[in-house]
Amino acid sequence: MGDWMTVTDPESKNISQYTSETKMSPSSLYLQKVLCSSIPLSKNVHSFFSAFCTEENIEQSISYLDQELTTFGFPSLYEESKGKETKRELNIVAVLNCMNELLIRQRKNLLAQENVETQNLKLGSDMDHLQSCYAKLKEQLETSRREMIGLQERDRQLQCKNRNLHQLLKNEKDEVQKLQNIIASRATQYNHDMKRKEREYNKLKERLHQLVMNKKDKRIAMEVLNYVGRADGKRGSWRTDKSEARNEDEMYKILLNDYEYRQKQILMENAELKKVLQQMKKEMISLLSPQKQKPIEKADDSTGTGISDVEEDPGELSRESIWDLSCETVREQLTNSIRKQWRILKSHVEKLDNQVSKVHLEGFNDEDVISRQDHEEETEKLELEIQQCKEMIKTQQQLLQQQLATTCDDDTTSLLQDCYLLEEKERLKEEWSLFKEQKKNFEKERRSFTEAAIRLGLERKAFEEERASWLKQQFLNMTTFDHQNSENVRLFSAFSGSSDRDNLTVHSRPRQKPYRVSNGSPICTSKLTKSLPASPSTSDFCQTRSCVSEHSSISVLNMTPEETRPNQVGGECANQKWSVASRPASQDGCCSECSWTSTNSHVEKDGLP
Amino acid sequence: MYKRGLVQVWSLEQPEWHCRIDEGSAGLVASCWSPDGRHILNTTEFHLRITVWSLCTKSVSYIKYPKACQQGISFSRDGRYLALAERRDCKDYVSIFVCSDWQLLRHFDTDTQDLAGIEWAPNGCVLAVWDTCLEYKVLLYSLDGRQLAAYCAYEWSLGVKSVAWSPSSQFLAVGSYDGKVRILNHVTWKMLTEFAHPAAISDPRVVVYKEAEKSPRGALGRPACPSFRAAESKYEIAAVPVSLQTLKPAADRANPKIGVGLLAFSPDSYFLATRNDNVPNAVWVWDMQKLRLFVVLEQLGPVRSFQWDPQRPRLAICSGGSKVYLWSPAGCVSVQVPGEGDFQVLSLCWHVTGASLALLSKDHFCLCFLETEDEADGAIGQLGAHT
């Protein structure tokens, strides 16, 4: 009816814009005026609302409104009219109701508008989202299409390759077949040729053979010095049928022996294997029988057969001996029984597996659950035990290593080691002291030996010098011969009696005083003295010193002019004189080569008392 | 003396005894003793016939149509029987003779294209017959001529190169051109296992001995040797993995150097020694109890021959140099042959008692005496040189 349009210039009185063409424009003025008086709004709105109803067109605006409202289904604004032409009174109640209703409707519409707007927004965002998704999916689709095309391309290529390879394989196979055929044909050809050539060759050989045989060459001969006996010592025998038969017999004998031997071996092997199988069977039965005594939830046929098997056992045991035979039936029996047992064992193991898996899956039976718990507990306990054991092993290992290692922190072990060390130290000390003692002794001995050696050397020197001087004397006194004999005797007696002389003569000493002699070799003299008492006889001395006397005869002669003393020994002064004689010859500084006998006497005096 | 067709025989115990056999125009291609030592079998030229000369009776027997092949004659170990390969009318036959009186026992044909060799089993009851190298076929015949089994490993390739029986007759080792040895067992005559000879060894349980030159230094305590004696060598243990020297054979020539060319079982059947011609410097020793590779010995030069001690598991190897090598499960040692000049050991031969070893060069031979085990391990005592 009436389209409310927005007014750009609400202040303008141009009402025609917002009223319907069907209606009169002035009515709209009236409408506006009516409305503006009741609704307290802003001036613009006021003016807007006052544009419909003004003071002048109230009736028109009321009738217009009434018409509009009745068309919308509202009750009439007018009161019930009694007559047709009387002016209808405005029903204020109806008007208020209508207004309320309109307000309510307005609110509703606003709500609905809001909802619609929010929905619109939502839909808009959804639309955006969907559009973006759509775009993405389109992209994905594109890419996947491209991929697919690529893969298809590759697939095609691979199939191509595959076909090519198949083709190649076929070709190769064909080639192989062809080559094989060629080879076969060539082989037959070759064989044929070979046969031909062989026949030719054989013919030639035959001819050659004939020629060779015909030649009867005397040169084809054997020269032997003498016949060699046969290896087995027997004589050769002629070839006869009997010998042929004998050979055949021997051959068969050999073959039979070989077969028998092999059969024996095989029988032994068989017996061993049978034993093993029987043992296996027994063990399997023993394994299975204790299982049967446990209560098993699922009753199986296998249990029945198992029990029956256990019952079979005593019967079977008695039949064992029969199995040593190897006839067909017995063999089959053994294998069958083994197979049966094996099947039972297998089924039992499978059953156990099933039980375990069922417990894992369902756990419906309390017993099973508890048993599983127990099982777990036990496993935990066992694991703990294992841990403990491992730790113990580790500690043991450590202790062992400590014991073996040289450095250790433990007190007792260090003490022990110290003890051992002390013991060893003491032992070492003892040995060391021993060693030192021995060293000292050795040193002493060495020193003594060196001294002895030195003395010996000196004495030897002295002796040499004396000898030299004595020889000189002898040589010098070569001329005086008359006293030779007596002097010799004297010399001898002097030698022999030197010890006596030494014992007796003390007064000879002052004569010898000026002859200061050095104890060149006291040991030698002491040796001499030692030897002298042993054999003081002149004869011995004569013999021992005969050689000396020959050399020293000269010096003896020298001594004669000097005083001689009558002695029981006789030659004492001769000795002295000899010493005197010898001394001037050796005036030089060789005190060591001074008289032997004088030193003798000197020492004697010292040593004897 | 093949060229002159003469065979001369001397006695070791009676030096004045001698014998001369003259084949004359028949020519001589091969000659061998019979196991009783009283007969000499001469193969005439072109393999026309085999003449059996008896030293006991001065009699002659002839055997016609012998086959000219790699190993056509085989005496059984106990010396009773002789198996001879024959070929008549392009077919192969095997004749079995009794050695005591040279009577023909059995004569049967074989299912081979071109028989290449025959060999008795040590127990004297089975005869192994193998075909030419163009076809892999091993046939087994019993003493009375029945065929027991046939074995073929593969077709279309070069086949059997060498065959060896184990001394217990339990195993038959077949070495082929593909570088593998196949072991057949005597009960079923089927393959037990096959041994391959790759050039790279990676199994850590295998011990690899490599011969290495010692730095040239005078040996202490040895009598002075001339200066041109070759350098000493010793064995070193090489750590696995090891790769051996290989030889690429000429593919267009006959008798290519590939495949297992030498096979020998130890006397107790515990070990099998092989040589793969691709890897000419190495000797492979296989443990027959565990059926796997045990030891590899790599020499400096190509291995010419090896032979087991007839009494114990001791292997002697020669490689053309002047040394002989000995291996036993206890270890291995390389021994220099003393002598003036260079003594090239080309082949060797053990004495039956295993106490001495003959080393042969081109025109000399040397006897090597081995001390008993009372002495230090593997001690090789005096070496005497005789020519």
UniProtKB/TrEMBL annotation, chain A:
Stretches the record annotates as Disordered: 291-315, 498-521
Family matches, as InterPro entries: Adhesion_Centrosome_assoc (IPR052300), Afadin/alpha-actinin-bd (IPR021622)
Domain of life assignment: Eukaryota
Subcellular location: Cell junction, Adherens junction; Cytoplasm, Cytoskeleton, Microtubule organizing center, Centrosome, Centriolar satellite
Listed GO CC annotations: adherens junction; centriolar satellite; ciliary basal body
Keyword Cytoplasm: yes
Coiled coil ranges: 127-214, 372-399
Family that this chain belongs to: Belongs to the ADIP family.
UniProt protein name: SSX family member 2 interacting protein
Tagged with keyword Cytoplasm: yes
Annotated Pfam families: ADIP
TrEMBL record, chain B:
UniProt cross-references to Gene3D superfamilies, sorted A to Z: YVTN repeat-like/Quinoprotein amine dehydrogenase (2.130.10.10)
Top-rank taxon, per record: Eukaryota
Stored Pfam families: WD40
Record-level GO cellular component terms: microtubule organizing center; MWP complex
SMART domains: WD40
PANTHER family: WD REPEAT PROTEIN 8-RELATED, WD REPEAT-CONTAINING PROTEIN WRAP73
Name used for this protein in its record: WD repeat containing, antisense to TP73
Native organism: Pipistrellus kuhlii (Kuhl's pipistrelle)
